[in-house]
Amino acid sequence: MIVLSGASASGKTEAAKMLMTKYGIKRAITTTTRPMRSQEVDGRDYFFVSKETFEKLIADGAFVEYTIYNGNYYGSTKNQIADNRSVVIDLEGLKSYTQFNDKRIVTFYLSASEELCYKRMLERGDTVEDAQRRIANDRKLFARNRIPKVDYIIDSGSKSIEEVADEVYRLYNEHLKAKHQS
Questions:
Q1: Which of 35, 36, 107, 148 could anchor a disulfide with 3, C-beta 3.0 to 4.6 Å?
Q2: Helix, strand, coil shares of the chain as percentages rounded to 5?
Q3: Coil, strand, or helix at residue 175?
């Protein structure tokens, strides 16, 4: 499983999309308690469950990681860990994945300059205020001393999204080969 993390607009979501398009790497489906939006499909976009169901899954130890965001639970279940899958995760989720002992998990941190991330946010339609707030938040959240030990750090600011996806895919396959041989 490819685990992608990084600051806002570091390229992780776009890299995951490119991995699916170019290499057939499917996205792991995460679970949430937030209401389904009109274009979303249960089991494709998320597994939509009640708060009570989510809390039972927590009690049963079903999650690698979970968080509460905007009053809703979001989490990655252990049963979604598989070869040729990817998940885009926040820093706390990344910490959980780095501590989870499963040879199929390969962790990546995508790094890009604040200036580039800010530019990307504006290009994708974020407001100036939102982009500035995210940069300020990410400056604290993604300080070097807070980033857990990951398998690979990729400078996503010096490459196209396709080049990032290609590098992730290559490193992922090399990593799995080396782990299966040891």
A1: 107
A2: 45, 20, 35
A3: helix
Burial 62-98 (b: 16+ CB within 10 A, else e): bbbbbeeeeeebbbbbeebbeebbbbbbbbebbbbbb
Phi, psi of 27 (to 5 degrees): -85, 130
Q: Name the pTM for this structure.
A: 0.88
pLDDT digits (tens, 9 = 90+) for 18-54: 999 999 999 999 999 999 989 999 999 999 999 999 9
Q: Which helix (H) or strand (E) holds 172?
A: helix 161-181
Q: Is residue 110 within 8 Å of residue 14, measured between CB atoms?
A: no
Q: Which domains does the chain have, with CATH numbers?
A: 2-28+83-181 (3.40.50.300), 29-80 (3.30.63.10)
The three-class DSSP label of residue 116 is helix
